[in-house]
Amino acid sequence: MHRARKRFGQNFLHDRQVIEQMISVIRPEPGQRFLEIGPGQGALTRPLLDAGVNLTAIEVDRDLAAQLRRWPEHRTGALTVVEGDALADPVARLCGDEVPERVVGNLPYNLSTPLLFHLTESLTRVDDLHLLLQREVVERMAAVPGSRVYGRLSVMLQYRCQVEPLFDVPPGAFRPAPQVTSRFVRLLPHRKPPMPRVESGCLAEVVAAAFGQRRKTLRNALGGLLTADAIANAGVDPGTRAEQVDLSGYGRLASQLEACRQDR
Predict the structure, then answer these.
(1) pLDDT tens-digit series, residues 46-64
(2) Residue 153, Cβ neighbours under 10 Å: how many?
(3) Is 162 in the same domain as 227?
(4) pLDDT beyond 60 at 7
(5) Could you say which of 168, 189, 210 is where a domain stops?
(6) Reported pTM
(7) Distances, alpha carbon 174 to alpha carbons 26, 138, 217, in Å
(8) CB of 230 within 8 A of CB of 213?
């Protein structure tokens, strides 16, 4: 039996009831294209393939990748196994010309935030993502302004997707059992931007600066990007703090930053 490797943050899902519950909300259909991040021992891979999907699995552990390549679906072409780091390349490059319609994954806790940013960077042809994460991470993803956990992850994920927390998964559903509760979440990429045109690079800069010094007012936290007058011109109080600004407010700040740079 494969032993979980701590350096990869491996916790293998094994609870059949939880797996069935996950599949029931994913609702895979024959012929759909899936990308699975970190298939591990194939707890989700098997029922997805049984549903008739075409699946590309990205696995960093070479021993587990080798095991998956011995599955009959790998010989028939229904399963493609890519041995590598999901953070190393854009999703489209990992999958070649077959850009996935749907993404699933049991993300390692130690890499969940960078993986979330990476997976949601380009979602043009992705219909949805179903991910298993630490509960606290999902709380941050879905947080609203004013919440103590509202932050950079909340704003950037909600700018890109609709976040739908689904259900909790207890530690005992994994082997070895983590010390935290997990939560299954659905991300639905926005087909229409949630706010007027915003330059994504400017938005990322503003959000990172604001929450990088979240104890400071925006006047101080954004001092290297926008003046107090420019912040006010965006319809945001320069004396407010990062966690009090909603998504549309950050969109206006990003547009103000873009306009200021064009005027220089």
Answers:
(1) 999 999 999 999 988 889 9
(2) 20
(3) no
(4) no
(5) 189
(6) 0.91
(7) 19, 18, 42
(8) no
Give me 96's structure tokens: 């070649």
Beta-bridge mates of residue 134 = 182
Q: What is the rounded CA–CA span in Å between residue 246 and residue 256?
A: 15
Question: Is the pLDDT reported for residue 8 higher than 70?
Answer: no
Helix axes 112-119, 135-142, angle to 10 degrees: 40
Residue ranges making up the domain that contains 206: 200-263
Hey, what are 200's tokens?
Answer: 């994504």
Q: Do 178 and 222 share a structural domain?
A: no
| Token pair of 61 as six digits | 């552990």
Residue 258 belongs to a domain? yes
By CB neighbour count within 10 A (0-12 exposed, 13-18 middle, 19+ buried), where does 107 fall?
Answer: buried
CATH number of 156's domain? 3.40.50.150
Q: How many domains does the chain have?
A: 2
At 230, list the tokens: 């420019």
Q: Which of the given ranges, 6-10, 195-199, 209-213, has the highest pLDDT on average? A: 209-213
| Cα–Cα distances in angstroms (integers) from residue 90 to residues 26, 65, 77, 183, in the given order | 23, 20, 22, 25
Is residue 257 within 8 Å of 236, Cβ to Cβ? no
Residue 194 counted as domain residue:
no
pLDDT digits (tens, 9 = 90+) for 64-122: 999 999 999 999 999 999 988 888 766 666 555 566 689 999 988 888 999 999 889 87
Q: Which of 163, 189, 215 is the last residue of a domain?
A: 189
CB atoms within 10 A of CB 82: 17
Supply 121's token pair. 């960077």
Residue 195 lies in a domain: no
* Residue 66 lies inside a defined structural domain of this protein: yes
Strands 128-134 vs 102-106: parallel, antiparallel or unpaired: parallel
CA distance 237 to 244: 10
